[in-house]
Each structure stands twice: as structure tokens, then as C-alpha cells.
């Protein structure tokens, strides 16, 4: 979100309008590294493109950011022995991340290799923009091994046409064709190139970027926490954002041995304690931040959760 916000601001666009069109709270900019769903990412990129009139924005963002913008995936790339090993690691890690809903794959055709990318969710709006964004990151992965000036033989995106083709080709450094699957094409001998800057991620650093797994309860907890930036999220709203019905979500949570109410309560307790541990917000303001109508309702809920009032907890634990 950070690079998108910078691009919109630099072009004189309105961040408030961009986030409003994407149906996302502007307060997410306060924590730009938080994970968001793929469908929300696509909406945000599409809104930014519309706001500043730059269809080449996805390529510009990903090429400029490189593997530094890949978070935990970037760590896997940088610690792999060869390019082929890095591609294999990315393929394994990506399905385990909540925000992706995507897959990558490596295909050899004689002397050529095709490093492909696909959106696995049924999302049509913004799909091509997401593919172009991904191509920039795939390019960054290969360039980590082959150098910043390396160029693929050509790139492929899906769709019937491509707006701003010449500008995007200039950013990626190669010709782009239209096909059934997005990806980069290059010589297969490149896959054996060793990692020139290999390192082992420090445990504490990796923990800071630890992705959310495919545990449905963890996904719901994360979505509830994101929703608190805007309003108290409902189970219907969370189910809709996850692309499933309320009943399906309830059934999945039951199979995981939990309930929506239990997850929501745990998230609220954790966020309440985080806010109370500082002195910047009054208890009344914290109540509003957590979706309560007034201080009294929040106080009663917190007392039920912890056995003490918010003011007592703040005095005892700060």
C-alpha cells in the first residue's frame, strides 16, 4: 500500500478517493505492511490507476520495488542456492499466504523456460493489472540471480488487449504477447545460476514478516482485525470478503473447533489491551475504536473478558 499511496500522491491524486473506491479504510496506511486479501489488492490498484490515469502503474510499482516488496517470499528467494531452487520455494510458499490466492509454476520447453503466474480465485476485475504487477516481481526474482540489467526473451499476459503496451514493455525490458497464462520466457540454462547474494534469514527478522497460514480461524481473525479500522465487522461481511456464504464460514469454523464469536472476542481483547497499554487514547476513544457505542458498554465487555475494568487494567499493566 505504501508505494501505491506514494504514486497517487506524487501524481496529485486523492488517497481518500482511491481507498473509498476500493471500499477500504484509509487508516490502513498507518500500517502499510499489513496483509490484505487479493481481491482487495486488485480493487486498490484499479482505483489508483483510475485516479491518476496511469495504466502502466502496476509494472512501474513492482519493477521499482523488486524482491524487497515480496516480504516473506523475498526471504525465500534470497536464501535459495540457485534460481531454480528459488522458483520452487516461491511456488511452495505462495499458496500458504492469505493475501495471494495465486500460484506460480516453472515449465521447460527445450532450451526455454516459462516462469508462469496465475490468479486462482474467480476474480476478473483487475486480473490483467495484477498479472503485470506480478511480472515485475517475477522479473525481480530472476534479476536477483542474473543482475539488474537482465531481460527476458518476452513476457505474456492474458486478455484480449493491453493498454499502454509500449510503456509496460519499456518498464519490463521486453516484448509482451497475449496468451492463456501470464509469465516470463527465458533461456532454461539461467535456472542453474547460483545465488550471488545468498544469506540465511535471521529468525527474529523472519518472525516479523511471518505470513498467515491457510488456517481458516487465523484468516477470519486477521479479517476481523482489518475490519476494526473501519467498523465492527460482522460475520456476513467477513464471509462476503472471503468469497463464501455465512453458513459455509460457520461450518468451516466448526470443523476447526471454534466459532466466529470466540474469534472476534479474542481479537477484541488483544486489540483492547494493545490500545490500553499506551496513553495516547482515552478509554472512551478506545471504546469507539473497538466499535462500542459508549464507554459503559466497553467497560462491561472488558470486565467480562478479564475480570477487571479498562482503567484498572491500564493502571496495573502500564
Q: Explain this structure to me?
A:
The chain contains 16 helices and five strands. The protein has helices at residues 2-10, 15-21, 38-52, 57-65, 72-78, 83-93, 127-146, 165-172, 203-208, 216-227, 235-241, 246-255, 260-276, 283-289, 295-306, 310-317, and strands spanning 102-109, 112-119, 154-157, 175-178, 182-187. A five-stranded mixed sheet has the order 1-2-5-3-4, covered by helices on one side. Helix 1 runs parallel beside helix 3 (38-52) and helix 10 (216-227) packs across helix 13. The longest helix is centred in the middle third of the chain and has 20 residues, at 127-146. The chain starts with a helix and ends with a helix. The relative contact order is 0.10.
Terminal CA distance: 32 Å
Domains counted in the coordinates: how many?
A: 3
Radius of gyration: 22 Å
Number of strands: 5
Strand order, largest beta sheet:
1-2-5-3-4
Strand content: 5-15%
Mean pLDDT: 83
Helix content: 40-55%
SS-derived structural category: alpha+beta
Tell me the series of helices and strands, N- to C-terminal: HHHHHHEEHEHEEHHHHHHHH
Provide a concise account of the structure shown.
The protein has helices at residues 2-10, 15-21, 38-52, 57-65, 72-78, 83-93, 127-146, 165-172, 203-208, 216-227, 235-241, 246-255, 260-276, 283-289, 295-306, 310-317; strands at 102-109, 112-119, 154-157, 175-178, 182-187.
Amino acid at each position: 500500500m505504501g508505494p501505491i499511496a506514494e504514486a497517487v500522491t506524487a501524481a496529485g491524486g486523492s488517497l481518500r478517493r482511491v481507498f473509498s473506491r476500493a471500499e477500504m479504510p484509509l487508516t490502513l496506511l498507518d500500517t502499510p505492511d499489513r496483509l490484505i486479501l487479493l481481491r482487495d489488492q486488485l480493487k486498490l490498484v484499479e482505483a489508483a490507476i483510475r485516479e491518476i490515469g496511469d495504466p502502466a502503474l502496476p509494472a512501474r510499482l513492482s519493477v521499482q520495488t523488486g524482491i524487497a516488496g515480496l516480504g516473506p517470499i523475498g526471504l525465500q528467494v534470497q536464501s535459495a542456492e540457485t534460481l531454480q531452487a528459488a522458483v520452487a520455494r516461491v511456488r511452495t510458499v505462495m499458496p500458504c499466504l492469505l493475501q495471494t490466492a495465486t500460484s506460480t509454476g516453472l515449465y521447460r520447453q527445450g532450451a526455454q523456460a516459462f516462469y508462469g503466474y496465475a490468479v486462482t480465485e474467480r476474480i476478473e476485475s483487475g486480473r490483467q493489472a495484477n498479472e503485470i504487477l506480478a511480472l515485475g516481481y517475477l522479473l525481480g526474482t530472476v534479476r536477483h540471480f542474473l543482475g539488474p540489467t537482465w531481460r527476458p526473451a518476452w513476457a505474456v499476459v492474458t486478455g484480449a488487449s493491453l493498454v499502454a503496451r509500449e510503456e509496460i514493455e519499456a518498464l519490463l525490458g521486453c516484448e509482451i504477447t497475449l496468451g492463456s497464462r501470464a509469465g516470463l520466457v527465458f533461456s532454461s540454462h539461467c535456472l542453474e545460476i547460483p545465488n550471488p547474494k545468498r544469506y540465511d534469514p535471521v529468525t527474529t527478522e523472519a518472525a516479523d514478516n511471518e505470513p498467515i497460514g491457510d488456517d481458516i480461524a487465523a484468516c477470519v481473525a486477521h479479517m476481523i482485525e482489518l475490519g476494526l479500522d473501519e467498523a465492527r465487522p460482522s460475520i456476513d461481511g467477513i464471509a462476503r470478503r472471503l468469497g463464501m456464504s455465512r453458513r459455509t464460514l460457520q461450518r468451516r469454523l466448526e470443523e476447526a473447533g471454534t466459532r466466529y464469536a470466540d474469534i472476534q472476542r479474542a481479537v477484541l481483547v488483544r486489540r483492547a489491551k494493545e490500545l490500553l497499554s499506551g496513553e495516547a487514547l482515552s478509554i472512551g476513544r478506545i471504546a469507539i475504536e473497538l466499535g462500542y457505542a459508549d464507554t459503559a458498554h466497553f467497560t462491561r465487555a472488558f470486565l467480562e473478558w478479564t475480570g477487571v475494568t479498562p482503567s484498572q487494567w491500564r493502571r496495573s499493566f502500564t
